[in-house]
Amino acid sequence: MNVFKHLQHQRRELTGRAFDRHLRLGVTGLSGSGKTAFITSLVHQLTQGDQPSNLPFFDVVREQRYLGGRLASQVLAVPRFPLEQNLQYLQQTPPAWPPSTTGWSQLSLQLRYKAASGLRSHLQSHSELALDIIDYPGEWLLDLPMLDMSYAQWCEFSWQLFAKTHRSAAAQPFAQLLQNTDLQDASELHLQQLTDSYKQLLTQFHQTPGAYLNQPGRLLVPGVLSGAPMLQLFPLLPQQAEQPSALATQLEQHYDSYRKHVIKPFYQQHFSALDRQVILVDCLSALNAGYAAITELQQALRLILQSFNYGPSSLLSRLFKPKISKVLFAASKSDHATPEQHKALTLLLQQLLQQPLKNSQYQAATTEAMAIAAIRASSSGFVQADGLAQPCISGTGLDQQALTYFPGDIPPTVPPQEVFEQHKFAFLPLRPLPWNDTQALPHVRMDHVLQFILGDKLR
Amino acid sequence: MNVFKHLQHQRRELTGRAFDRHLRLGVTGLSGSGKTAFITSLVHQLTQGDQPSNLPFFDVVREQRYLGGRLASQVLAVPRFPLEQNLQYLQQTPPAWPPSTTGWSQLSLQLRYKAASGLRSHLQSHSELALDIIDYPGEWLLDLPMLDMSYAQWCEFSWQLFAKTHRSAAAQPFAQLLQNTDLQDASELHLQQLTDSYKQLLTQFHQTPGAYLNQPGRLLVPGVLSGAPMLQLFPLLPQQAEQPSALATQLEQHYDSYRKHVIKPFYQQHFSALDRQVILVDCLSALNAGYAAITELQQALRLILQSFNYGPSSLLSRLFKPKISKVLFAASKSDHATPEQHKALTLLLQQLLQQPLKNSQYQAATTEAMAIAAIRASSSGFVQADGLAQPCISGTGLDQQALTYFPGDIPPTVPPQEVFEQHKFAFLPLRPLPWNDTQALPHVRMDHVLQFILGDKLR
Asked: Among candidates B391, B380, B374, which has minimal Cα distance to B442?
């Protein structure tokens, strides 16, 4: 990992610019939130879509000061975000969403623009900004709270979670297995057997709509850590974790090792280098999945927000001094609802975040929430029904059927459980709109995104 | 990777012993050479099989000074060799070979013995030796020569190799593809498309008996490097590599990056920490596969030996000062032939190594070659044929059929091509012998192995 850190450092020096001429933007979100589509669109807008008609709210473009963006040469040893491959998926017939990535990757851009005013606008024909976009799984941020819990507390936390309605049935066999296990047997085979069972459970959760919170985050995608004993890690039943036993002692050691060798290095080596952050949230799928899902999403966001809490008593300030100055929460896939519902979607996301925002102290970071669609999957319009113009969207379902319909209202606040019992939300998944690369990628509010993330750096 | 180095260092300090109380043993070999069986057996012999009747040529055991070995606690962040799981495979009905590992792993032992004589034997009731066994793919050693070749030389080298009889047909489509490719197109998609084709070719080679030499070694198992641009790497046709072009320039950069960020760190961080080394060689499969296979095995061994050539002008002495003092070449699976053929097997291995041994200067390392079987797959005996006692072996084929047969003679030197045209070697693959863990694991000459590798450290 240090190789990467060294390379990042080197690259920053090589660009030979003052610090504010170089920006490292993190993009994350839980699995399925739309990271791949977001980065693909962001880069395409900055390199091909810079017409005022396409990005009206992006000041530097509207003021015709944007001279263009191009892919910059990239450190060859760092995983590269597969932009070109993703654009190919969108151009297929029928168009397909690009596959999601695992792990982290990076893409570097060089942006050129005319300064709006000030000394630079007079002295230089143009200015440049180097932009590194870093993609990583939101699940990695969910590990942070483990730094603040003992192993026994983590067991307590996990089993409270597993008691939720959308999880409890799946967790039953593993609970049974632990109940009947010999706590004095900390042998390799026993540990591995129990870990394998826990992995099965996590895999099941991973496929359960609304089960966002799966720890430890690297158990299912171990990468280079594969086979390391510290990944033999699972939560004993709370009463088991409290009593001293050979198994509890061993698991405690693995837990500590995981925190030291996985969680902390991620923050110290990768996260600490970020300047700004986009967090994508798929609220519509959570609504589809029901009450337990939307409350777990709220809980997951609360945990993720801890990574952006820089108060003096925060977890992170013990590890390093973060320098993220802007955080954007984006409700993705807003085009799966009709446009007049976007306001409600933004309000819903804000409510999901409100509780945590109140609790934390963003000493340096400005935050914003908005509803977006990185790559449009629908066009919107109206149908006449009972003599009234009824809003609707048109798109193509995954089964390739053409659809024109009203997907339903988005509640502006988290609805009470009763609503979910009487009403089933059903925001359908859609294919991307047909596209060829002579056009800008159709989007919703990517210009607002760009303005918030980059506007002040391109003045 | 530095984490691992740091941990190794820490561990070495923690053991609190002078340097010669701690030994790091590397075990390697090309894919299929029997690394997993070897390490499983080695550890089992040292922890469970220490009876003089089982290890008669291992001095410390024969002299009854060996007090036992046990698994030591291991750094939790380092991939652990799955010993216990492997032993389970051997105890199945029918017994099965444990699955082969990819990447590297480690297992640590603590050995206890009485010193034979000298001050220690009087002062201490017992002495201890900490033994770390490090498993890594032999393919990683095949990358070393790339440090000494330019990109153009590597292309030349690769295409000479691909012209060999057992490779040329498979390589034809990729040669054709390159022939028709636009050398000025160094776009991401073009690079990835060509790399994908080269990967397909390597996969085909990997499944071709006798195609040992596949570079770059990490293309098929990229692990954490997955997606890094430097892994877009393949050999252009020699005449293409010599002319300046956008594609050649780009590939040259990837080649240099691969050498700097993959090959050198492996030697500097992992290899440099080894004290002794076992290299397993499956000569019988090479004989089965024919003349081209056995000559390619010879070539692969020549390249692997460069990693143990410590002359002042060696590749490695530019990177670090190696300290491997003993290297054992073991012809594995010798029990797939009858015992009176083992001498010929050893001679054959020696001949495969002879040319390289002459050329290189082992300033510090003692080498040895022997024929072994880490875990027996056959018992040997005699059948009466024409009134004569004919040697034979008995075992179980992969299809579970019981077999008693004479597998044929092993040639003590590499036979000329004509022999392969007239005669087909057929050393059949066998299942391991049935075994339960109350017994020592049956083997051939693991006591000789232990004596060579550890004997002097257990005096």
From this structure: B374
The Cα–Cα gap between B108 and A162 comes to 37
Chain B residue with minimum CA distance to A256: B76
B226: contact with A, CB 8 A cutoff: yes
ipTM over 0.85: no
Q: Which one of B88, B223, B265 has the shortest CB-CB distance to A224?
A: B223
The tens digit of pLDDT for each residue in A396-410 reads 999 999 999 999 999
Q: How far apart are alpha carbons B20 and A282 in whole angstroms?
A: 59
Distance CA A133, CA A136 (A): 10
Mean pLDDT of B301-329: 80
Kindly tell me the burial class for residue B116, based on how many C-beta atoms sit within 10 Å of its own C-beta (0-12, 13-18, 19 or more).
Answer: middle
User: Is the CB of B224 less than 8 angstroms away from the CB of A223?
Assistant: yes
Alpha-carbon B196 to chain mean position: 27
**Over 80: is that where the pLDDT of B207 sits?**
yes
At A444, phi and psi to the nearest 5?
Answer: -125, 115
**Residue A11 scores a pLDDT above 90:** no
Interchain CB distance below 8 Å, B227 and A105: yes
Longest dimension (CA), chain B: 77
pLDDT at B101: 80
Place of tokens 């003349």: B291
Instruction: Please check the confidence at residue B27 and state whether its pLDDT lies above 60.
Output: yes
User: Across all residues in chain A, what is the average pLDDT?
Assistant: 90
Report d(CA A199, CA A233) in Å as an integer: 9
- CB neighbours (10 Å) of residue B317? 14
Q: Would you say domain B2-141+270-378+434-458 falls under CATH 3.40.50.300?
A: yes
Nearest by CB to B192, which of A78, A85, A230? A85
User: Residue range B102-123: average pLDDT?
Assistant: 85
Q: Report CB contact under 8 Å: B229, A76.
A: yes
Please state, in angstroms and rounded to a whole number, the distance separating the CA atoms of residues A431 and A398: 6
Does the distance separating the beta carbons of B77 and A227 come in below 8 Å?
no
- Strand ranges across the sheet with B326-331: B66-71, B105-113, B127-135, B22-29, B276-281, B326-331, B366-371
Mean pLDDT of A65-84: 92
Percent of chain B with pLDDT over 70: 91
- The pLDDT value recorded for residue B361 is 52
Structure tokens at A274: 């970020």
Q: Output the pTM of the full model.
A: 0.85
Q: Which of A4, A71, A76, A258 is the best substitution to test chain B (most B C-beta atoms within 10 A)?
A: A76
Amino acid at A329: F
Give dist(CA B69, CA B109) in Å, integer: 7
B113–chain A nearest CA distance, Å: 25
Tell me how close the Cα of A40 comes to any Cα of chain B, in angstroms: 15
Query: Apex CA B80: angle with CA B79 and CA B81, to 5°?
Result: 125
Nearest to B230 among A77, A187, A262 (CB): A77
Q: Where are the domains of chain A?
A: 2-141+270-378+434-458, 150-267
